[in-house]
User: Fold this.
Amino acid sequence: MDPDGPCCEQLFSVHNNMTMDTDNLAVNTIRCLSADMVSKAKSGHPGAPIGCAPIAHVLFSDLMKFYAPVPKWMGRDYFVLSNGHASALMYSMLHLAGFKLPMSELENFRQFGSKTPGHPERGVTPGVEVTTGPLGQGVSNAVGIAVAAKVMGHKYNKPNFPLFDNHVYSIVGDGCLMEGVSAEALSLAGTLNLDNLTVIWDDNKITIDGATDQAFAEDTIARFKAYGFETFVVEEGDTDIVGLRETLAKAKACPKPSFVAVRTTIGYKSAKEGTAAVHGSPLNAEHLAELKGALGMPADKFFHVPESVEAHYKGKGVAREAAFEEWSQMVEAYLATYPENANVVKRIISGEREVEADAEALIATLMEKDLKDSFPVGKGLSTRKASGEVLSALYNELPWMMGGSADLSGSNCTRIAGAGVFGKDNRDSRYIPFGVREHAMCAISNGIAAYSTALVPFDATFLVFLGYCVGALRVGALSRQRSIHVFTHDSIGLGEDGPTHMPIETMTYIRSTPNMADWRPADGDETIGAYAWSVCCSEGPSVMALSRQNVPHLAGSTPAKAMRGGYVVVQETTEAPKVVLISTGTEVSLTIEAAKAVEAAYGVEGCVRVVSMPSMVVYKRQSAEYRASVVPAGVPVVSVEPHHSMSWAGLSHFHIGLDRFGESAPIKALYEHFGFTPEAICAKVQKVVAQLEGNVPALGFVQVE
Assistant:
């Protein structure tokens, strides 16, 4: 590579030889393609795609770096359609730009099995970076992508080797800017001075319920200036393509994050332009023909792309191929020049992530090097502190791990010694100060994960505040994005702070969300296993539910056992157990003491089996044979956990838990009041055993082939 030769950026100069006629023809093609998709499906949102077509054309035609045959090229710019209901626009652009999305997929919009679902979904459509639709999530993900690009670029870019110089563009609608999560994320983006982020506002002044000024009348430009953004306005966004191109180029070049307000008309040139009626309803045949006529397009043609438009985008693809090849050569030269960075750089570029086979080696590294002698048997230590030790070790072992806390670093035990804090004046750190912004924090983690699948994002707050994070957690689970959510103060064991801070229903939500894993470890070894599984085996987000109070290190625990989700921590010595007790987290040691009380009550030593179940989700994924070896049939099963009973259905015959909110009191008083003592548990267990004597029902639902 010639370091004095043209850089990738120069290959995408905003000055090109297109005529305005070709520009307008391309824009109107996008408008009609989008309208055709919605009308054929008889479902969707035509208004925003029609209005935003000029923005999308300028971005995909002139400004953005990407190479359609390699959608995950790490030299690309990232595009996030935060107003995901405008998905027809996204699919039109991906098709025209040469991504593997044939016209047949556009014709199959919103149909079962298509690559063009109702809202963009990561992993379904080539070129879609993140799943959007729930408003505000996409632009918050964009902030995370920008953070990751800044961290990786500062660490690994070298003079004449701009490996990671990605710019992030996000189109937002009025609804995105009304959502609280976007305010949280964009406030942080300004504070961190993410100058690689451009937010483009489709300012059409219409929402589903009507004019925006009935609910959204603030000075949005002033708001973004207050955040620390450079702001721009394009007054004639429907037609001023030259002005739009110049403004977006200026926005990209400025030394701050940029916000571009583009005044558009929803459903431009359609019969219902400028009204809420065109937001989420297809144009009928008459109105569709009228739209095409008003735009100078053939009214009798559907899914039509003029040859000149197709040729234009193909021509752009030739330049992009050259840029991709140049960047690839630069990478080879970089790896030869900086071999000490080769492992990390190749991993980021390829998106390579740990797999299940790596877990054993990772555990060995942690236990033999970083955490040697950290968790001796019998030592009292809260699982949040155990987590802090494991997380620090992982942070130092995995240069592709990054994250932080929502202003609770000390309480969550996530502060990394010597790591510093990422900020506008410190790009060296991978520790992110999210501030008191729980929802944005989790959405930003999703964005970090989207930058490269090699990255391992983590974040932290109190478990009870998971409720603030649900929107982002759900999208992360839907997208199968690996992230680790460190949520501490996990039960009534937090004591005097009381019911406002005591999670009761939270574990049920976690366990019932597809692709999300619950982890409530009982000691340090189980905590190591939880993290090893989350790094190496997860297919989505993992939630760590960690204690404030100390717990003893168990004699029968190991990280490998914990990674099965559930295992026998105390084996009965009799021929068969009289009862099986299952518990999680801080209550496992309590349940072991209760088991001794039960055995004393029956006068039979060793007649109780105790199972530790740090992850119900992971345990359920084990084979039927393994689960039968842990919890045998025909034996009464009692579960113990100070959380709602709902998630235990099918796993135990009786649950000792909490189906009500807690109280404010010292922990000892709370555990006694709610029956979490060895004596109280023993009494309940005896009643269950007596009631089920000779007639123990099977656990779980009936299995039907």
In short: The radius of gyration is 28 Å. The chain has a mean pLDDT of 96.
